[in-house]
C-alpha cells in the first residue's frame, strides 16, 4: 500500500507574526512535528488545495478549514498556543489522527483497527462516556457488509467527533478511577485511599492533572500491566509537551 504523508497546516499569515512568545511556541511545535516525521505545509488563504493531506491546522483567530474526508479537523488559533487546555486538546486530536493514519490506514485490517481502539480506550473515556460506549459497540459489531475502507473511515469520523470537545474534570476523573482499579489487588488500603483522594482533589480543582497522572505512572513502574502501559492516555502527544498536565 502506498505510504501517505501526514501534514500540519500553517496559515501563511501566522508565520510572519511578530509576537516573540507565540513564535517560540510555534517553533517548538514545528520541531516536535518534524521529529515525528510529520510534514509542515504552509497554506495561503486563497490556495487551499490540499485539505486531504492536512491532519491539523493552525491559523489566525476565526480562520477555519473543512476536511473533505468528513472528519472533524483539529484546528488551533495562534493565540491558543499559549492556552494550556486548548493546546492539550489540539495536540491530542492531531496526534491521534496521525497515529490512526500510521497504525490503521497504512496497513488496513480489522485487527489493526481493533488494536488501535484498544490502545485509545481510556483516552476516549476521558473525553466522552457516550462516545466511549458508541465506539465500543462499533468495534464489537464490525459489519461484514461494508468494505474495510468504509469501516475505517467511519471509525475515524467517530473518533474525531469523540475528541472534538476538550475533556471535563469529571470525564478525566472517570477514566482515572477506572485505571486506578487495575491496582486494587496489589495496593494496601492506605495506598488505595491515597489514590482515590488525589483523583478526587483533581476533580475538585485543588490539584492539576499531573498529580493523579504521576501517581498512576509510579504504580505502573512498581506493578507493570501491559494493557495499561500501552494506553494512549499516557502518551497522547510527544513528551516535549508533558508540562501541560501541570496546567490542566
TrEMBL record:
What's the superkingdom here? Bacteria
Which segments constitute the DUF1722 domain?
Answer: 121-238
Q: Which Pfam families match?
A: DUF1722
The protein, known as: DUF1722 domain-containing protein
